[in-house]
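Handoff note, outgoing to incoming analyst
You'll be picking up this chain. Sequence as last confirmed:
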Amino acid sequence: MSFEALGLHASIVKAVFQAGYEKPTPVQEQAVPAAIAGRDLLVSSQTGSGKTAAFMLPSLHKFADAEPAAAGRTPAQEAQAARARGERVRFKAAQPKMLVLTPTRELALQVTTATEQYTAHMRRIRAVSILGGMPYPKQMQLLAKNPEILVATPGRLIDHMESGKIDFSQLEILVLDEADRMLDMGFIDDIEKIVAATPETRQTMLFSATLDGVVGNMARRITKNPQVIQIMSAANRHENITQKVHFVDDLSHKNRLLDHLLRDETMDQAVVFTATKRDADMIADRLNIAGFAAAALHGDMHQGARNRTLDSMRRGQVRVLVATDVAARGIDVPSITHVVNYDLPKFPEDYVHRIGRTGRAGRNGTAVSLVNHAESMNVRRIERFTKQTIPVDVVEGFEPKRSAAPRSGARPGWKPGDGRNGKPGQRSFHKPAGEGYRGDAPRREGGYRSEGAPRTEGGYQGQRREGGYRTESAPRSEGGYQGQRREGGFRSESAPRRERPAFGAHPRSADSARRTFGDR
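Most recent structure output, in case you need it:
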């Protein structure tokens, strides 16, 4: 199918071809016609499948077919006229027609850049990014232009909404890109507030790795009779990406192996993922000392520094990018051939997003995870989520001293408890099916003695105390306290003697069962 067959405006098709697009991706083939028809969309598709064009192209088509707005004064001209009249210049709230919410600044800038390519032959359409890390005066200048398309992160957008700088009364299209990630980052309240400020007549398109759980609940609240499109789930197989696991003994072993992997002649550019911002800076510095063109990317960097780092990556000046999960969201550099998980992600979903930085748009890629033996269970979680086994690889000269644990023959989706009886919390759950008492096995001799049966041999065989236990009527035996008793004692003469249980005895009913150690 061609872009012309999707029914897009001629100016958009021309711009798409100039941007290097040859034919629509599967998600674009399904989403674009439905969006042009005005349907709400719930789309689940893998990273790098062309989601940005899937929601932006039909939206631009709608604006291209709209009647041009009546010519009027620009905001600068209105401000100049107000000053000439001696009036105070008042800021007029921006009234965008389309809002795109993204979880990170990098993804917002990526969407804005792509939109500028798609609108190369549409002069009346302006798209701006409103996000954290950008100076407020700069953002005020962008909003003063009253852009048709606003791409923003939820936090900064809320700030402008509360200050009256943005008015959504004219909004026609709302897009939530990577909605699952925004919810993971705690933006649920901000999203609810933003959606509540938009007209109910809007068209809503939600793109997410998964459409179940919290995402599904929110999607049902903000959409009306949506068309569900599932190209690939977040647990897709990434067949164009070669995945490997390398076990390491310690930090020194990990660093030496990383150095070796980054010297691979087949590698063009790579992204190394770390768990902390501090590690990102430290590893980037060490790689630079070792002769690599490396740079760090994390959330503590100013937006200008992050933009310069990504620009250097796209121009090929940076060969190795050391990044954290949040900062790397939205990175779209086709020349990234390798992804290295220096630290495994906390959640399996993040693993899928990480390796999605390579193998973009159908290209081949390689994803390598450096794993300590104690992290084997995390690898199993990723395998269960992706429903595929990640093979273990060993580089000659960098073999781990400790061999990896043998991989079980169970399917990748196996969970503890498979093939067992009972439910979690029951004793039978901890025993594989078939174990326990078997009818043909010999029982313990004697079994359990019934109440009326005589005592069998095998009990306490030591010498019994002569006389057994003294009855109330029997005289006190020797061996007790032989001294003179204290007159009166502690008990008054008139108070009756009270029966006291022996040390360690606990009163219980006559028909209560004897407790055992396992009953505690």
